[in-house]
Specification:
Layout (H helix, E strand, L loop, with lengths): L1 H14 L4 H23 L6 E6 L2 E5 L4 E6 L6 E2 L4 E5 L2 H20 L3 H27 L5 H51 L2 E3 L4 E6 L6 E2 L4 E6 L3 E9 H4 L7 E7 L5 E11 L4 E2 L13 E10 L9 E6 L3
Antiparallel strand pairs: 1-10, 1-15, 2-9, 3-5, 3-8, 4-7, 5-6, 7-9, 10-14, 11-12, 11-15, 12-14, 13-14
């Protein structure tokens, strides 16, 4: 009897199999789909272009010849606009300047004192005019001859011509010496400019990126001394597909993502500052959203650097399509 009961129980279980495995499988599928939909809903749109961060770099070269006396700034140090970074020997130029100053003083001393040198002739002229008046009175009283008056008039005319010639000569001498002083002054101005160029200054506020020389080396005109860049304002140079660039305009906002080579990605707010007016073939180091696209437009997105962005670092951008 016991064997018969067991056989009947097995037949019933075979006819009506258990529903539990199906319920578990169905519940798992629903849960996985829920996670997938939630992930799709939370996922943000991906970047539309990528490139590298850059900043305008300025190479400052020597404008003078001489030994570099000092070059105290180090690579990576902050320098301000107009700051003296390197100094070149200018002793010979300064000595030449002192020599020209001495020549200017000598020219000033050689200038004639016109009033003093004309005083004697003016006194003679004044005396001759007084004598003419006396002879005119004597002639009225018939106490002098007409010839005496004519001689007095002639003497006055001679003295007047002599005085005019002396004045012209002295004026010409002073003018010549003045021109000589002006020429020397221009030479001093040239030396001042050359002396000023012996000091290499930073043209912008920024960071000293590379030093190409050290103190003690010989500088020549055109020799690169250092390179400076303003790293406070960085630019992501990205390459944008043609179908995207039509919806991007200058001054529009953008979201920039800095790639640190790990899973960590920093996000920045940027502004489109430049878009090329010509298309070009996709550079090898640029990855666009559409890999089949051959022509792209270069664009620059300005970003305020918080200190983490570095030159040459890779980044991506997503534009604000408003």
């Amino acid at each position: 009897m016991k064997n018969i009961a067991l056989a009947e129980g097995a037949a019933v279980r075979n006819r009506f199999p258990a529903r539990r495995p199906f319920a578990v499988a169905f519940s798992g599928a629903v849960l996985a789909l829920s996670f997938f939909l939630a992930g799709c809903a939370a996922r943000e749109p991906g970047p539309e272009a990528s490139g590298t961060f850059e900043s305008p770099e300025i190479i400052v070269s020597s404008e003078a010849t001489g030994r570099i006396l000092s070059f105290d700034a180090e690579e990576g140090s902050r320098i301000s606009e107009g700051m003296a970074v390197a100094r070149i020997d200018s002793v010979q130029l300064e000595l030449k300047r002192k020599q020209l100053e001495s020549q200017i003083r000598g020219a000033e001393n050689r200038k004639p004192d016109i009033a003093l040198q004309l005083a004697a002739t003016e006194q003679q002229l004044e005396t001759a005019r007084g004598e003419k008046e006396r002879i005119e009175r004597l002639l009225s009283a018939e106490a002098a001859s007409r010839k005496q008056l004519d001689d007095a008039v002639a003497q006055i005319a001679t003295l007047e011509r002599q005085l005019a010639a002396q004045r012209e000569s002295l004026d010409s001498s002073r003018a010549s010496l003045g021109d000589e002083q002006s020429a020397l002054g221009y030479q001093i101005a040239q030396l001042d400019d050359q002396i000023a160029r012996c000091v290499a200054k930073s043209p912008v506020d920024g960071t000293l990126i590379v030093k190409y020389a050290e103190a003690g080396e010989l500088a020549t005109p055109g020799k690169a001394l250092f390179r400076v860049a303003n790293l406070d304002r960085m630019y992501l140079r990205a390459y944008v597909d043609a179908d995207i660039v039509t919806a991007v305009k200058l001054g529009s906002a953008a979201t920039v993502y800095a790639d640190y080579g790990t899973k960590a990605v920093r996000e920045y707010r940027g502004t489109v500052s430049w878009i090329s007016d010509k298309a070009e073939f996709t550079p090898k180091n640029a990855q666009t959203r559409n890999e089949r696209s051959n022509l792209v437009y270069a664009a620059k997105i300005a970003v305020d650097n918080d200190g983490f962005l570095k030159l040459g670092m890779y980044g991506a951008v997503r534009f604000s399509h408003e």
